[in-house]
Design goal:
The chain is mainly beta and about 325 residues long. It has strands spanning about 1-5, 10-25, 30-40, 50-55, 55-65, 70-80, 105-115, 120-135, 135, 145-150, 150-160, 165-175, 180-185, 190-200, 205-215, 220-230, 240-250, 255-270, 285-295, 300-315, 320-330. β11 and β12 form a beta hairpin. It is globular, with a radius of gyration of 21 Å.
């Protein structure tokens, strides 16, 4: 649950549901899963409310695991059970809640992942995926307005060291998006005014995560992420640079109970989105937050997590938001 104050007071409730299973069919090892959820959101503006199911994700993975090398062949499907058509002022600004958008069209995402075990504690992973994205209607004010988004080709390289007292991971991610065709709309007159053809800029991300056991019961955690999205071509747009940092401590009270405290900082150069123009404020923002939580291992098969977050988003020009977030998570192994 997220609640914030700004120019208006808004909130968002999200109830996720997911199921995952690992199984063997004949001589083949498979993973499969399904995830969906219910969301109820309101930005505080007129026509700023959205409620209903989110999109549903299906996934299946064929696992081919050898002593040194492992290959995983995957297929993901996005089923448009959510709401792709919603009002302009229902779009939630970035960094305030789980969803800024609430649905898209059908998507089919084949993927392959190769893992090479360098040592017992070190591994190198490469991932490739290609998302085939179908068109969908995107505006509540102009119900016939459609977008045909470009397909996405993504590549990622990851190095992981999993030591007994120290673990760290480095990831480099890139994706390239194909050309999109989108109906331009005037939400005041509720008409289609033309058609835009453009291509989103490439995304680049460099991520670093580090965990270290500093005493018998305490673990230090920190991360840094640097992301860059190029300006879209064919439409008025800007490149977006993002930086994320976090540091915290995890303390083990007992074998079944732990608590953790994390501080986060984000810097975003601007908010530019060709599809959801309500996000195009023309300026950047900084987001600071403090997260406290506890993990309770009820049994070997059941876990419960509680987290609360206090955040402040400071926009360029003096505007901004502040709010709270609360998370309850229950997980059971059948």
């Amino acid at each position: 649950y997220y609640a914030w104050q700004g120019d208006r007071a808004g909130h968002q409730l999200y109830l996720p549901l997911s199921y995952f299973e690992r199984t063997r069919i004949g001589t083949r090892d498979f993973d499969y899963g399904i995830s969906t959820g219910y969301v109820k959101s309101h930005t505080g503006y007129e026509n700023g409310g959205v409620s209903g199911w989110t999109d549903t994700s299906l996934s299946v993975t064929l696992r081919n695991e050898k002593k040194i090398n492992r290959v995983y062949y995957g297929l993901g499907v996005n089923i448009p059970t959510g709401q792709s058509r919603f009002a302009r002022y229902a779009v939630v600004p970035e960094g305030l809640a789980r969803f800024t958008d609430f649905g898209a069209g059908w998507q089919y995402i084949p993927s392959v992942e190769v893992v090479h075990l360098i040592t017992e504690r070190d591994r190198l992973t490469g991932r490739l995926s290609y998302a085939v994205r179908s068109g969908y209607e995107y505006s509540k004010e102009v119900p016939s307005a459609r977008i045909s988004p470009g397909n996405i080709f993504a590549q990622e390289v990851e190095y992981l060291h999993a030591g007994e007292k120290k673990q760290y991971m480095v990831q480099l991610y890139h994706n390239a998006t194909g050309s999109a065709v989108q109906d331009a709309v005037d939400t005041d007159t509720r008409t289609i005014t033309g058609r835009n053809s453009y291509r989103d800029g490439d995304d680049w991300e460099l991520r670093f995560f580090h965990n270290e056991k500093i005493s018998k019961k305490n673990e230090l955690r920190f991360y840094s992420i640097y992301a860059f999205t190029g300006a879209a071509s064919g439409i008025a747009s800007q490149s977006v640079a993002r930086q994320y940092y976090g540091i915290g401590l995890r303390h083990r009270i007992s074998e079944k109970l732990t608590w953790q405290l994390m501080a986060h900082y984000a810097r975003v150069s601007n908010t530019s989105d060709p599809l959801r123009t309500a996000l195009n404020t023309g300026g950047g923002f900084r987001r600071k937050s403090l997260v406290a939580g506890a993990d309770w291992k009820i049994t070997e098969r059941r876990n419960f997590t509680f987290q609360t977050e206090r955040f402040v988003r400071s926009d360029e020009g003096g505007f901004g938001y502040n709010g709270w977030a609360f998370t309850l998570w229950y997980q059971e192994t059948l």
